[in-house]
Amino acid sequence: MIFLFKIGFLEISIVNLIDISLVSILIYQVYKLLRGSVAIKIFLGFLSIYLVYLFVNALRMELLTIILGQFMGVGVIAAIIIFAPEIRKFLLIIGKSSFLSNESIWQELLFWRKRESNAFNISPIIEATKSLSGTNTGALMVLSRNSELKFYSESGDLMDAILSKRLLISIFNKYSPLHDGAVIIYNGKVKAARCILPVTERDVPAQFGLRHRAAIGMSEATDTLVLIVSEETGQVSLAKNGKILHNLSFQEVREFLNDYLSGVDIDDKFDPISVYERPQFKKSAVKTSN
Ligand SMILES: Nc1ncnc2c1ncn2[C@@H]1O[C@H](COP(=O)(O)OP(=O)(O)OP(=O)(O)O)[C@@H](O)[C@H]1O
């Protein structure tokens, strides 16, 4: 083994350094995930007790080590119960960003099928959005580039219909029995309508109602781009990765949809929802359109 440093009785190898770096990154990621929630205080409490445990263990203080060791044993189970929602969120983030979450990769690996491009003609979506926005008809469209989202599709009515402007307008027409909930669009098809999306658990600025909360929640849980047309103002927004872009022009929507479907990383172009809490942000009733 190659040792980098030898300070007194302490010898640190490259492996130790990598180990320490990885643990630091992990702790930072957990901190980022829990920041702002009540769970962060419990997490810091556990972390402090664990550090004390490591310290007394290193000093060979046996009695204290046994007591704290017992506490840590029970503490792990308690932590799993207390942090269940955060652990779920953490695993979802890992699953979402893993390249194995891409269904077309699985098809290629398992069935030797040639991977098809996920890009398709988005004009029907843009044209339908213009019409829905112009008539102040609320709409929620989930675009997926690498998964059929079966779990969410099955919460609504399965369709598997070829995408068209008229189909989308008919679905979101307020007299249509399919208008409530979201449509899921994948590979040029409307896979399902009337789907129920997960609502974000974060605090969302007051101007965003349930439709926007569901869009933000869906974009947090999956690698999807969610398009929202507000029933109240006709404004068009996009949600991605828990962030949002509000009151977009149709040209902007077209560019974002095309970039997303061709695999471009657009996450950085989105605003954190906290931006819309600023006092200078005014909900504009003026709609920009091209
Ligand atoms: N979890 C959900 N999944 C899918 N669709 C939902 C969900 N929650 C609400 N919606 C849709 O949003 C509609 C209610 O929207 P609401 O008016 O509360 O939201 P909003 O964000 O203020 O939108 P708007 O600006 O259009 O008024 C519902 O009728 C339903 O179609």
UniProtKB/TrEMBL annotation:
Lyase is among the record's keywords: no
Function: Catalyzes the condensation of 2 ATP molecules into cyclic di-AMP (c-di-AMP), a second messenger used to regulate differing processes in different bacteria.
Protein name: Diadenylate cyclase
Signal peptide (UniProt feature, chain positions): none
EC annotation from Swiss-Prot or TrEMBL: 2.7.7.85
Domain DAC: 84-250
GO molecular function: adenylate cyclase activity; ATP binding; diadenylate cyclase activity
Family per similarity comment: Belongs to the adenylate cyclase family. DacA/CdaA subfamily.
Alphabetical list of InterPro entries matching this protein: C-di-AMP_synthase (IPR014046), CdaA (IPR034701), CdaA_N (IPR045585), DisA (IPR050338), DNA_integrity_DisA_N_sf (IPR036888), DNA_integrity_scan_DisA_N (IPR003390)
Lineage of the organism: Bacteria, Pseudomonadati, Bacteroidota, Cytophagia, Cytophagales
Gene: dacA
Annotated keywords: ATP-binding, Cell membrane, Membrane, Nucleotide-binding, Nucleotidyltransferase, Transferase, Transmembrane, Transmembrane helix
Residue ranges of the TM segments: 12-31, 37-56, 63-84
Subunit structure: Probably a homodimer.
Record PANTHER family: DIADENYLATE CYCLASE
PROSITE patterns given in the database record: DAC (PS51794)
Known catalytic reactions: 2 ATP = 3',3'-c-di-AMP + 2 diphosphate
Annotated source species: Mongoliitalea lutea
